[in-house]
From TrEMBL:
Family annotation (InterPro entries): Aldolase_TIM, DHO_dehydrogenase, DHOD_1A, Dihydroorotate_DH_1, Dihydroorotate_DH_1_2, Dihydroorotate_DH_cat, Dihydroorotate_DH_CS
The name this protein goes by in its record: Dihydroorotate dehydrogenase
Name of encoding gene: pyrA
GO molecular function, one term: dihydroorotate dehydrogenase (fumarate) activity
Annotated catalysed reactions: (S)-dihydroorotate + A = orotate + AH2; (S)-dihydroorotate + fumarate = orotate + succinate
Major localisation: cytoplasm
SUPFAM superfamilies the UniProt entry points to: FMN-linked oxidoreductases
Enzyme class, first EC level, given as a word: oxidoreductase
C-alpha cells in the first residue's frame, strides 16, 4: 500500500488530507469528529479575540457545483480553541493540529498572536489574511502594503511556526509581487486558496444567502482550476522552506493528486466535507491511493511538484 503521509514545518501527519478552515471545525464536537476520521489533522474555525455570532442566516448554501457562503466569522473566540488544543496536546502529544486566527483589526491580530506566542501551544498557527465576508472590511491579502506591514510586525515577536491563508490571485504580476513579499519572512507555509470572494448564486429570481444581498465566497468544483494555479504559482516562486497547503475543489482522489502534482504538501477539503461529512476523508484517501498504485508511486515525494508541461 502506498503512503499518503506528509510533513509540514517538520511535523509528521499520517495522511495529507484535512478539513479546510470554516468547515466542520466550529465546535469541539466537530473537531473531535475530524480528529477521529481518516484526516491527518484538523484546523480550527478562524478565531477572533472575542466570540462572534457572525452574519444572519441563511449564510451558507451547497449548490450543484460547489457552495456559496457569507458566514461573517462566527466563532467561539480564541480561548475556546486554544484551551481545547492545549488539553489535546496533553492527551495526544504525538499529533499536531492547526489553529486558525485573525483579528478584527491589526491591533487585535497582534493581541491574539501575542497570546498564542505566550501560551504553551506547540502546534501550527495559520493567520487568515483572506476572509471576504465581513461587511466593510476588505481582504488583507489583496492589499500588499498592509500584508507586508503586518508580517513585519508579527515576525518581530512571533517565533512559533506560522503560515498564512491566502485568497486566490488572478494575475501573474500579483503572484510575483505576493511571492516577493512572502519570501522575506520565515513563513512555514502558505495555504492556497480561500474561497473565490463575492460570487453571486441565483435560484429562480432570488439569491440563496441573506448577508450582503447574496454575495459570498465560492467553493467546490467552480474553484479547482484557480486553486491549482495558485498552488503551482507559489510552489514555483516561494523559497523551499515555505511549503504549500492546497485547498479548493477537492471532491475526489484525483483532485487531491492534482494539488500535490502542483506542489501541495497537504490538501484541505471544504465544500465536499460539508456535503458528505467526515466519511469523505476515507473515500478520497482510498481514491488517491488507487491512483498512486496505478502509477507506481510509493509516497507523495514521488510526484509532488512534478507537473508536466507541453514543449
Ligand atoms: C469566513 C469566511 C472565510 O472565507 C474566511 O477565510 C474566514 C471567515 C466567514 O465568513 O466566517
Amino acid at each position: 500500500m502506498p503512503s499518503t503521509q506528509t510533513q509540514i514545518a517538520g511535523f509528521s501527519f499520517d495522511n495529507c488530507l484535512m478539513n479546510a478552515a470554516g468547515v466542520h471545525c466550529m465546535t469541539i464536537a466537530e473537531l473531535d469528529e475530524v480528529k477521529g476520521s481518516a484526516a491527518g489533522t484538523f484546523v480550527t474555525k478562524t478565531a477572533t479575540l472575542e466570540a462572534r455570532a457572525g452574519n444572519p442566516e441563511p449564510r451558507y448554501q451547497d449548490v450543484p457545483l460547489g457552495s456559496i457562503n457569507s458566514m461573517g466569522l462566527p466563532n467561539q473566540g480564541l480561548d475556546y480553541y486554544l484551551d481545547y488544543l492545549l488539553d489535546l496536546q496533553e492527551k495526544e502529544p504525538n499529533r499536531t493540529f492547526f489553529l486558525s486566527l485573525v483579528g478584527m483589526s491589526p491591533e487585535d491580530t497582534h493581541t491574539i498572536l501575542h497570546k498564542v506566542e505566550e501560551s504553551g501551544f506547540k502546534g501550527l498557527t495559520e493567520l487568515n489574511l483572506s476572509c471576504p465576508n465581513v461587511p466593510g472590511k476588505p481582504q488583507i491579502a489583496y492589499d500588499f502594503e498592509t500584508t507586508e506591514r503586518i508580517l513585519t510586525e508579527v515576525f518581530a515577536y512571533f517565533k512559533k511556526p506560522l503560515g498564512i491563508k491566502l485568497p486566490p490571485y488572478f494575475d501573474i504580476v500579483h503572484f510575483d509581487q505576493a511571492a516577493a513579499i512572502f519570501n522575506q519572512f520565515p513563513l512555514r507555509f502558505v495555504n492556497c486558496i480561500n474561497s473565490i470572494g463575492n460570487g453571486l448564486y441565483i435560484e429562480d429570481e432570488t439569491v440563496v444567502i441573506r448577508p450582503k444581498n447574496g454575495f459570498g465566497g465560492i467553493g467546490g468544483q467552480y474553484v479547482k482550476p484557480t486553486a491549482l494555479a495558485n498552488v503551482h504559482a507559489f510552489y514555483q516562486r516561494l523559497k523551499p522552506e515555505i511549503q504549500i497547503i492546497g485547498t479548493g475543489g477537492v471532491l475526489t482522489g484525483r483532485d487531491a493528486f492534482e494539488h500535490i502534482l502542483c506542489g501541495a504538501s497537504m490538501v484541505q477539503v471544504g465544500t465536499t466535507l460539508h456535503k458528505e461529512g467526515v466519511a469523505a476523508f476515507e473515500r478520497i484517501t482510498k481514491e488517491l491511493e488507487e491512483i498512486m498504485v496505478a502509477k507506481g508511486y510509493q509516497n507523495l515525494d514521488d510526484f509532488r511538484g512534478k507537473l508536466g508541461y507541453i514543449g
